[in-house]
Design a protein that fits this description.
Layout (H helix, E strand, L loop, with lengths): L7 E10 L6 H36 L1 H19 L4 H27 L1 H21 L4 H21 L13 E6 L2 E2 L2 E2 L14 E3 L13 H7 L1 E7 L6 E7 L9 E12 L2 E13 L10 E11 L2 E9 L4 E6 L1 H17 L6 H36 L2 E7 L1 H7 L4 H9 L1 H14 L3 E7 L7 H14 L3 E5 L7 E5 L18
Parallel strand pairs: 10-13, 13-14
Antiparallel strand pairs: 1-9, 2-8, 3-4, 5-6, 6-7, 8-9, 10-11, 11-12, 15-16
């Protein structure tokens, strides 16, 4: 988010919405215009890459030879059908790109003046695309921001930007709030009193969030309506909104995103409010050190993702229960039903509609289990040490084995992310110790492991583990131990 500084932090509050009551055709039209702008930006990026290749192949014969081989392999892919011939051509493309990429990077470092001129042309083309689009300015700002982020990530991973998939029916529209009479952004109350014309949320009574109110009454009171501007002509979209939690009084709403995505046979809508909050120094709520050992394995009828031990003698496990595993087994069986021509069409249609929604619910359920476990852990300990194998190396070593299936279902990186997030919220420290692979792995897997470490250690200090000197241990900054309330012994997490 723009205009952030060391004294503020950005948060996102997501609220569920129902099907639009009005204005949906205008929202679809604006999303189409945003998609056209994205395709134009991808074309600009392709022209940028082509300009670099033209200059580089004129200077370096090795680059020219690899580009000729790449064009030949791409033509072979287009001419080949499904089968071994196509797979061989795709493998040839990947091999050629692996050899071509470092040569292009080296050429770019040695010809900075040429790169400056090409970059200037790209930026001018982006400005022209922005000035000539019919998209409303908050939406074209969001598209351009996604484009700049995507081109950095694709360059880091050695990939290319892609045109939009016209078969997809998901989308995102944005409203940016620059300033109101109370300052930058908007106060939460200004979204309900009509101060912000582009975004209005219906008034929700105080009783809707009062724990003394009956649960059913609270749920009914939280139902309201949101109106949001979608295009340059001022058209509004109106949707039901479940305002399940209030915004903090000191928050400043900087932008709102209306997103929709297909889940099963229906579209799922969300309103995401990006708010800026004064940064507060958080002191740890717990005491002592807790160790989380990530090692997915079946224990009885449960899938144990990690075990927890503490200096205070506390022991527990973070696990997915038998019901969750049974439902995931059903998700795995549904493709066979969908592809079985001997079954009635009605049964196959029901299976095709059931699978996406059931899968999404199970993923949300798993994340919620991990969130509750991570919150309890962050409230109990001031320092959380996570011992985990390198996930990319484990995936390569365990491929095609039952351990690989368990690792996919446990999805340990989601648990690690939740622990890190909850530790930041509760003022704790996270130490991540990554073990070496138990077997030799290819160099490309080792490079991916290093990328995982560099991505997961952003904003942390790298120290060295005393008991495993070969393991780099990233540690969050700014946490100091202090006494706090203790949770009941043996609190269940799953």
């Amino acid at each position: 988010m723009k205009r952030q500084n060391a004294m503020t932090e950005a948060l996102v509050y997501a609220y569920g919405c129902g099907a639009p009551l009005s204005g949906w055709p205008h929202a679809e039209a604006e999303a189409e215009r945003a998609g056209i702008l994205w395709d134009r930006l991808v074309g600009i990026e392709r022209a940028y890459e082509a300009a670099i290749e033209v200059q580089a192949r004129a200077d370096e014969p090795a680059i020219d030879a690899l580009l000729v081989a790449l064009a030949t392999a791409q033509a072979a892919v287009r001419a080949a059908g499904d089968g071994a011939q196509r797979r061989d051509a795709v493998a040839e493309i990947r091999s050629t790109r692996r050899h071509l990429r470092p040569l292009l990077w080296q050429w770019q470092r040695e010809h900075k003046d040429v790169m400056t001129a090409i970059e200037h042309e790209r930026r001018q083309a982006v400005i022209a695309a922005r000035q000539t689009t019919d998209t409303w300015w908050p939406n074209y700002n969001a598209v351009i921001a996604r484009y700049e982020t995507a081109r950095r990530e694709t360059a880091r991973r050695g990939r290319r930007l892609r045109l939009r998939d016209i078969a997809r029916d998901d989308g995102c529209l944005t409203v940016q709030i620059q300033r109101t009479r109370t300052g930058l952004g908007a106060a939460p109350v200004e979204l309900q009193d009509g101060t912000v014309s582009a975004l209005a949320i219906g008034v929700v009574p105080v009783a809707a969030h009062d724990p003394h109110t009956h649960r059913g009454d609270r749920r009914r009171a939280r139902r309201t309506v949101v109106e949001m501007r979608v295009d340059a002509d001022g058209h509004m979209i109106r949707l039901p909104l479940w305002y399940h939690r209030p915004l903090p009084a000191r928050a400043r709403v900087k932008s709102a995103q209306l997103t929709w995505a297909r889940v099963g046979d229906r579209l799922r809508y969300q309103l995401c409010l990006t708010v800026s909050m004064p940064r507060t120094e958080r002191r740890p709520e717990g005491t002592g050190v807790g160790t989380v050992v990530v090692a997915p394995e079946m224990v009885g009828q449960r899938l144990c993702t990690a075990t927890v031990t503490g200096q205070d003698g506390y022991r527990d496990s973070i696990a997915l229960d038998a019901h969750w595993l049974a439902m995931m087994d059903r998700v795995d069986r549904l493709p066979a039903i969908i592809g079985d021509d001997s079954l009635p069409d009605q049964q196959r249609i029901r299976a095709r509609l059931e699978r996406p929604g059931l899968w999404a619910r199970l993923l949300r359920r798993r994340r919620e289990l991990y969130r509750l476990a991570a919150r309890a852990l962050a409230q109990r300990y001031a320092v959380i040490r996570i011992e985990t194998p390198a996930l990319c190396e484990a995936a390569w070593i365990d491929r095609g084995t039952p351990a690989s299936a368990l690792r996919h279902r446990a999805c340990a990186h989601v648990l690690i992310t939740e622990i890190e997030h909850q530790a930041r919220k509760h003022g704790g420290v996270v130490e991540l110790a990554v073990a070496d692979a138990s077997a030799p792995v290819p160099q490309r897997v080792r490079r991916r492991r290093n990328k995982e470490l560099s991505a997961s250690t952003a904003g942390r200090v790298m120290t060295w583990s005393g008991d495993a000197p070969h393991n780099a241990v990233p540690v969050d900054v700014g946490a100091r131990p202090c006494a706090a309330e203790r949770l009941p012994e043996g609190e269940p997490w799953s």
